[in-house]
C-alpha cells in the first residue's frame, strides 16, 4: 500500500521533469509560478530551522531550466529518493549547520543502507538555494552537484541472493549472518591473505578444543577401562591343552619386519600426536614450558618424518595380507560367537580370524585416510584452502584417536591377553597347539601344503611307478 | 584500564598500503611475512571497499586457545602477544584465527613452518622492553615508548586508528555524526561479536 | 741426545709449557672480557612483567587522537 503511494508520489514529482503533461496537471501548473519567486530567492540562506534540503529527494533545484539531464543525474534511483513523503522534509536539518547530529536514518551505522549511502555520494551535501518548504519540481539553473539524501524510512532489504552486484556492506552483512568467508584481493604475494575473515576458524576451534578432546578421551580411556575389566574378569587366555613344544612358522621375516616398522612408527606418531592435543594440560604443568616446547618440537619433527615409513609399512602390509583378510562366512560365525572371548566357544578361523581382519582393515583404511590427510596437513595450502585444511585436520585427529583405541586392544590381545600369541610376531613361530586351537583351518592348509611339498599327490605319479 | 583496539574506517581507506609498508619497515618483518595487509572487496565494482587488517587482539583469542604449547598471553592493555621461544610452528593458530593474522616463515622441511610471527600492536614481546633482543625477535615496542602502532600513525587518510578503544570509538562516532556515514566498522562484528558498540 | 741436548729439551719444554699456560690464561681471561665488552644479556621478562600495562596517554598519543578527529 505504501509502495503504491510512494510510487504515485514519485511519479507525480517526476512527471513535470520528464515532461509528461498527461499526469499531474495540478502540480505542473504550480511549478512555473513557484519557480519564479524561488529563482529570485537568495541562495543559501542561513536558516537552520528551515527545511533547507527541501528537495534532495527530487534532486530538483528551482533555478535551472527544465533539464531532464539534471534530473537524471541527481536521481539515480527515483524510487528510493522520492519515496519519502513531503512531510519528512520539515524535520531535516543540515548537519553542518548546527552539528545537531545526523537525521534519524544515518545514525544507524551498523545498518547497511545500500543504494542511498554508497561510496560515491557520501559527504556531498550542498546548501540548497531556497528555503521554501515546497520546492517546485522545476528547473535547476545550472548543473547542480549531487545532494546526498538523508534517509529516514527504513528501506526494504534487497533480495538476499541473486545476480545483482552486492555492495560491500551487503556482502559483509550476508557473510556475518551466514558465517561465510569474506574474500577480496591483496597486492602482496601471499594469496591466502586475500581472505579477510574466515568465521570457520571459530567452529574449528570449538571442535578441536571440545569435541575432539572428548572423543579422544572417551575412546582411549574407554578402551583401556574395558581391557582392564576384561583382564580382571577373564584373565589371560591360556592354551587349552598347554603348549605342545612343537612350533610352526606363522609369519616370515618380511611380514614381521613390515609389521614392526608399522607398529613402532605408529607408536611414536600416536604419542607425538596425542602430545599436541593433551600435552598442554597434562605434560606442560609437570615439566615446565621450555622443556615442553623442546619435547613438542621434537615430537612434531618425528611426527612429520615418521609419516613416510608408516605409510610405506601400511602399504606393504596391504600388499602382503590383503588376500588373507577378505571377509568370509567364517568371520561372521566367529563374530557371533564373540570371538571366543565371551563364553566357551571356539569358533574356527583361517589364517586370520574376524577380529584380526577387523584390525587389518582398520589399519589399512583408517591408516590410509590418516596418512592422506596427514600429508595434506604437512604440505599446507598446496592443494587445499583454509576450510579444507581445517576439515583435513578434524578428520586426521578423530580417525587417529579411534585407531589408537583399536590398536590398544590389538596390542593387549597380542601380548598380555593371549598366551602364545606374541611369538607369532616375535619369532615368527607359534606353538602347534595354539595354532590348532585358534586357527584350525590355517593349520590344515599349512599341513596340506607341507605334505604336498614332501610327497606330491598321487595323480602326478605315473601309474605303476612304485 | 585502557583497552587497545584497531579500527579501520573503510570509507576512508584508499588502499595506499602505507600501513603495510610502515609496519614492515618499523618491525623489520622477515621476508614473505606481512603482519598487516590491505584487502580490497569488490575491486573495480560499485561499492568497492578496502580494509587494512592485522591482528585484532581479541579478548578471547582463538589463537591462544588452540596453541598446543600455550605460548600466547594477553597484557593488561588487552594486547595479545606470544613467546617465539616457545612456539613450535605447528600452524594451529592460523587455522583458528578468523583474520589470518599469524604468519610463518618458510624455514622448515616440507611446507614446514618456522616460528609464528604476527602483529604485536607495536608492543614487542616477552623480552625486556626496547632492547636489541626484543627488536630482533618481535620488532619495535612503541607502546612502551609512549607511542602508538606505526601503521595507524602513518595512515594517509586517517582511516586506520589505533589506541584506547573507547577513545577511537568516540572519534569514529564523531566522524559519523559530522560527516554522516557509517561503514559498519569492518571486522568488528566478527571480532567483537557479542558486544559491538560503535 | 745427551746432557747438552737434554738441557735444551728441558728448556724447550719449559718454554712451551709457559707458552701453553700463558695462552690458556690469556684465552681464559679474554673470554669473560669479551663477553663483558658486549652489553649484559637481558633476561626475559617475568610473568608479571609480561602482562604489565604499557600504554600511557602521552603527548604523542594525544596528538594522534587530536589529528584523527577531523
Automatic annotation (TrEMBL), chain B:
Coiled coil: none
PROSITE patterns xref list: 4FE4S_FER_1, 4FE4S_FER_2
UniProt keywords, alphabetically: 4Fe-4S, Iron, Iron-sulfur, Metal-binding
Gene3D superfamilies tied to this protein: 3.30.70.20
Alphabetized Pfam families for the sequence: Fer4_6 (PF12837)
Alphabetical list of NCBIfam families matching this protein: FDH3_beta
The protein, known as: Formate dehydrogenase
Organism: Teichococcus aestuarii
From TrEMBL, chain C:
PROSITE patterns listed in its UniProt record: TAT
Source superkingdom: Bacteria
Protein name: Formate dehydrogenase
Organism the protein comes from: Teichococcus aestuarii
Amino acid at each position: 500500500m505504501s509502495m503504491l503511494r510512494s510510487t504515485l508520489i514519485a511519479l507525480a514529482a517526476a512527471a513535470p521533469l520528464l515532461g509528461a503533461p498527461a499526469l499531474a496537471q495540478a502540480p505542473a501548473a504550480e511549478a512555473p509560478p513557484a519557480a519564479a519567486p524561488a529563482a529570485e530567492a537568495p541562495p543559501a540562506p542561513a536558516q537552520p530551522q528551515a527545511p533547507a534540503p527541501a528537495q534532495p529527494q527530487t534532486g530538483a533545484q528551482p533555478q535551472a531550466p527544465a533539464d531532464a539531464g539534471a534530473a537524471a543525474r541527481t536521481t539515480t534511483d527515483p524510487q528510493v529518493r522520492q519515496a519519502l513523503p513531503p512531510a519528512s522534509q520539515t524535520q531535516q536539518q543540515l548537519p553542518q549547520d548546527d552539528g545537531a547530529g545526523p537525521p534519524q536514518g544515518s545514525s544507524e551505522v551498523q545498518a547497511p543502507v545500500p543504494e542511498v549511502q554508497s561510496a560515491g555520494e557520501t559527504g556531498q551535501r550542498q546548501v540548497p538555494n531556497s528555503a521554501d518548504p515546497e520546492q517546485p519540481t522545476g528547473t535547476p539553473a545550472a548543473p547542480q552537484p549531487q545532494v546526498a539524501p538523508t534517509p529516514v524510512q527504513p528501506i526494504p532489504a534487497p533480495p538476499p541472493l541473486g545476480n545483482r552486484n552486492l555492495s560491500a556492506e551487503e556482502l559483509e552483512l550476508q557473510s556475518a549472518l551466514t558465517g561465510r568467508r569474506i574474500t577480496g584481493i591483496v597486492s602482496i604475494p601471499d594469496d591466502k591473505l586475500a581472505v579477510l575473515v574466515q568465521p570457520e576458524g571459530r567452529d574449528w576451534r570449538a571442535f578441536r578444543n571440545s569435541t575432539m578432546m572428548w572423543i579422544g578421551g572417551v575412546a582411549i580411556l574407554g578402551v583401556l577401562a574395558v581391557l582392564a575389566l576384561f583382564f580382571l574378569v577373564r584373565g589371560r587366555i591360556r592354551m587349552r591343552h598347554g603348549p605342545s613344544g612343537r612350533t610352526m612358522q606363522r609369519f616370515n621375516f618380511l611380514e614381521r619386519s613390515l609389521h614392526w616398522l608399522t607398529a613402532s612408527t605408529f607408536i611414536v606418531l600416536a604419542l607425538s600426536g596425542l602430545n599436541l592435543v593433551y600435552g598442554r594440560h597434562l605434560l606442560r604443568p609437570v615439566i615446565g614450558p621450555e622443556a615442553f616446547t623442546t619435547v613438542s618440537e621434537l615430537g612434531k619433527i618425528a611426527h612429520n618424518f615418521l609419516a613416510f615409513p608408516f605409510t610405506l609399512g601400511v602399504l606393504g602390509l596391504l600388499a602382503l595380507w590383503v588376500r588373507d583378510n577378505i571377509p568370509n562366512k567364517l568371520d561372521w560365525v566367529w563374530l557371533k560367537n564373540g570371538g571366543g572371548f565371551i563364553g566357551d566357544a571356539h569358533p574356527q578361523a583361517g589364517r586370520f580370524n574376524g577380529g584380526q581382519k577387523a584390525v587389518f582393515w582398520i589399519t589399512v583404511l583408517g591408516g590410509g585416510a590418516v596418512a592422506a590427510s596427514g600429508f595434506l596437513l604437512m604440505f599446507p595450502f598446496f592443494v587445499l584452502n583454509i576450510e579444507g585444511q581445517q576439515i583435513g585436520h578434524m578428520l586426521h585427529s578423530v580417525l587417529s584417536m579411534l585407531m589408537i583405541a583399536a590398536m590398544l586392544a590389538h596390542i593387549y590381545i597380542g601380548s598380555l591377553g593371549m598366551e602364545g600369541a606374541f611369538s607369532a610376531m616375535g619369532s615368527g613361530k607359534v606353538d602347534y597347539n595354539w595354532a590348532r586351537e585358534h586357527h584350525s583351518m590355517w593349520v590344515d592348509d599349512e599341513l596340506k601344503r607341507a605334505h604336498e611339498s614332501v610327497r606330491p599327490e598321487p595323480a602326478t605319479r605315473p601309474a605303476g611307478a612304485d | 584500564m585502557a583497552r587497545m583496539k584497531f579500527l579501520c574506517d573503510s570509507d576512508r581507506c584508499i588502499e595506499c598500503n602505507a600501513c603495510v609498508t610502515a609496519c614492515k619497515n618499523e618491525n623489520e618483518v622477515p621476508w614473505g611475512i606481512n603482519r598487516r595487509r590491505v584487502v580490497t572487496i569488490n575491486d573495480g565494482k560499485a561499492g568497492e571497499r578496502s580494509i587494512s587488517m592485522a591482528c585484532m587482539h581479541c579478548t578471547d583469542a582463538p589463537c591462544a586457545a588452540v596453541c598446543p604449547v600455550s605460548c600466547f598471553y594477553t597484557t593488561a592493555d588487552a594486547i595479545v602477544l606470544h613467546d617465539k621461544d616457545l612456539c613450535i610452528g605447528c600452524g594451529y593458530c592460523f587455522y583458528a584465527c578468523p583474520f589470518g593474522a599469524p604468519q610463518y616463515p618458510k624455514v622448515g622441511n616440507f611446507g614446514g613452518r618456522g616460528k609464528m610471527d604476527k602483529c604485536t600492536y607495536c608492543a614487542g614481546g616477552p623480552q625486556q622492553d626496547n632492547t636489541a633482543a626484543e627488536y630482533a625477535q618481535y620488532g619495535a615496542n612503541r607502546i612502551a615508548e609512549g607511542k602508538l602502532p606505526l601503521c595507524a600513525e602513518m595512515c594517509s587518510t586517517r582511516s586506520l586508528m589505533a589506541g584506547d578503544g573507547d577513545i577511537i570509538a568516540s572519534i569514529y562516532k564523531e566522524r559519523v555524526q559530522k560527516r554522516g556515514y557509517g561503514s559498519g566498522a569492518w571486522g568488528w562484528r566478527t571480532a567483537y561479536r557479542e558486544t559491538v558498540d560503535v | 741426545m745427551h746432557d747438552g741436548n737434554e738441557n735444551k729439551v728441558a728448556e724447550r719444554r719449559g718454554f712451551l709449557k709457559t707458552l701453553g699456560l700463558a695462552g690458556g690464561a690469556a684465552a681464559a681471561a679474554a673470554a669473560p672480557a669479551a663477553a663483558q665488552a658486549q652489553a649484559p644479556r637481558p633476561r626475559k621478562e617475568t610473568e608479571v612483567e609480561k602482562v604489565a600495562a604499557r600504554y600511557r596517554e602521552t603527548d604523542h598519543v594525544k596528538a594522534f587522537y587530536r589529528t584523527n578527529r577531523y
